[in-house]
Fold this protein.
Amino acid sequence: MKQFITFVKKEFLHVFRDLKTLLMLFGLPIVQIILFGFALTNEIKNAKIVICDYAKDNASQQIIGKFEASRQFEMEQSMLSHQQIETAFKEGKIKMAIVFPANFNKDLLHQNKAQVQLITDASDPNTATTLSSYATQIIMGYQNDLLQLQQLPYRINTEVRMIYNPELKAAVNFVPGVMSLILLLVCVLMTSVSIVKEKETGTMEILLVSPFNPFLVIVSKAVPYLALSLINLTVILLLSVFVLGMPVNGSILLLYAVSTLFIITALSLGLLISNVTASQQSAMLISLMGMLVPSILFTGFMFPLENIPYPLQLVANVVPAKWYYIIVKSIMVKGLGFSAIWKETLVLLGMTLVLLAVNIKKFKIRLV
Amino acid sequence: MRTLKFLLQKEFRQIFRNKALLPLLFVVPIVQLLILPLTADYEVKNINIAIVDHDHSTYSQKLVAKIGASGYFKLTDYTNSFNNAFKQIETDEADLILEIPQGFERSLIREDEQQLFLAVNAINGVKANLGGAYLNRIIADYNTDVRLEWVQMPKFSPIPTIEVTASNWFNPSMNYRFYMVPGILALLVTMIGAYMCALNIVKEKEVGTIEQINVTPVKKYQFILGKLIPFWVIGIVVFSVGLFGIGWLIYGIVPVGNLLMLYAYLAVYLIAVLGLGLLISTYSETQQQAMSVAFFFMMIFILMSGLFTSIDSMPRWAYVITQISPITYFIEVMRMIVLKGSGFANIQNHFLIMIGFAVFLNGWAILNYKKTS
């Protein structure tokens, strides 16, 4: 036990002496949670649009006024030809064009039917769909204004209630996502590299011939990162509550317990990578190139997971961040207890056990 | 020139001898490019809905049938109790709840007016909004159906209706893969360039071999060029495999614009990205440090590149950050050339900015690189 403590101390010294890495270790989560908490939103605001108004009458002006007033759209100058619209699209300046045909108001008043054309830049289909849906809502809103002048029979009204996030703040969705992403990547990265580094510089050989149990050498490497990650978690939570205004509706104790489990899962994954690689370069490439983008996409906070093809949903299941993301949402936002997240916790626990078992199996006392 | 040739020979040999590294450099990006574009579908379909029906009338059943037939919604629960439905929201089995009050049919007919209640899980605000909007449209349709049953409408619509038609340019089938493949390819090429370049030089520092090079008459610029060119070449090869092998053959994305221009832009872009890697390497002593710094910038650049979330929606200060990230421009240019067929006149500003990045990053790195320690 005394030996173990000495080893852990050594590892802490390693970490604390490398100020640049330490700064990154702590600076990175802080900067990113604030940056992404404020900047990331999958809502679409201030999308630049142009209006091509061939009608220039009362009705078209009123609808344009409605667009000007909405915060989803930002009007660029009006244009008068399709040619100009195409150029604007190709320069990437605008996302959508709205075309009012000539005689718009006349058609509307006399034939009770008029057309508006929306032209979207579908090279970004997600934005295009959302924008045309917003625009349709605004135009329908104008139509309803007209309708209200005449009372219709048999009206059905809907009352909509937004639960969990009445102000529709993007942070409620993104903070848990970025949190799982950062914790996962930082832990995997740091452990995998620190062990391979000893291999690469040759000091691993020395550690392995010491009378100390070789496997504990590895475990003692993970301990400082567990401690640092818990501090990181605390900082992230404080920032998200006090700076980003995230709620913590559930038990904070439970959140910490599950987070500790998640961190251990990530650390075991890092250990596994360090076990199978021989150089820092490969370890880093696996944990950065191999994991960054897949974790962003498979955690489910960017794009809804239920939309992806079924085989890939199975792939998403092996990404630990996916399960942690569900847990954090349940505890922080929905305020649920352990009974709601035991399945996800069990999955994380299972992953950790499997990873550790593979680690023990793969671990070699001899390097060559 | 001769010195450079030998240096290049050395670098290429080192890269190709590393049997662990090569597959990572080529296989990882290609596998990711094959799989990841499939995941980024934001189209809202399969919205799970739980319906609480207190009325159980013909009318309420018609409404339920209409919602089910719409194709957007999947009925996960049809119950009498709101609490049951709410449980489904808690477990994420349902995204929204529609509550039909008791006496829905009766009061709709007798009192001309009736309320429906909709509760939406709004953690993901956009999904909530879209789901709510779709459902509202269906309810409005249903409302018209009911009205038609009771009121004989004249042949011409008595109420003014505006028809909204949408045309989707550049990607009429709204295939989101057309958008994701070029974007993800850009990310992968960037990561290879920046990480590899940063790590490679720091590795020489860490292992100590850089001292040996420093004491030779090899010039500063020769050493740096010797490091940059191999990764520049690898970047272009990976890009080509991704663009033609995966984008064209598998996803069927035929670049609309001028390929020569695309490659010219890629060439400048890679120089800028490699310059970033170089700059990071001059400031780090160990690979761990280099990687931490590279990771820090990559994550910010990637998440704010506009590929995943809209740049226009960001607050002003965040928008400024996106504008000082080279990735943002590259993803834009990829989309402009590959999908929209923009010409040189459309992207000349992007060209100038990228040349600026390349000069600035490399210049800084070269100034900061010292042959003495």
User: Anything to note?
Assistant: Chain A has a mean pLDDT of 84. Chain A touches chain B through 126 residues (CB under 8 Å).
